[in-house]
Amino acid sequence: MALEGEERGTDQLLRFLEGAPANIxxxxxxxxxxxxxxxxxxxxxxxxxxxxxxxxxxxxIRRGFEVLLSSRVFYAVFQEFxxxxxxxxxxxxxxxxxxxxxxxxVFRDKxxxxxxxxxx
Length: 120
What we know:
elongated, mainly alpha, single chain
């Protein structure tokens, strides 16, 4: 009797988890996109502005399970890290440091949303 109940429970669990890897990958990608957008917005907020070109050039790029924050202007690196004439602005570093505590929260929320959807 107990074995029969366990088999039913196992079958239910397997059905529940069916498609889990693909869906967890999708939830992870959505989380990375959200974190990338947040980092991009924060970096734009902190970027030094003279003409606005640097600020407008800041973008996030997601490559698989990696998010990069970048700028297409050559002087972004000098503004970020400084030179012997310019103090470091650290606008991208600051943005990334501010979203760091949110990483676990975003992924937990995305995966919980998927689990709740599957449980309905």
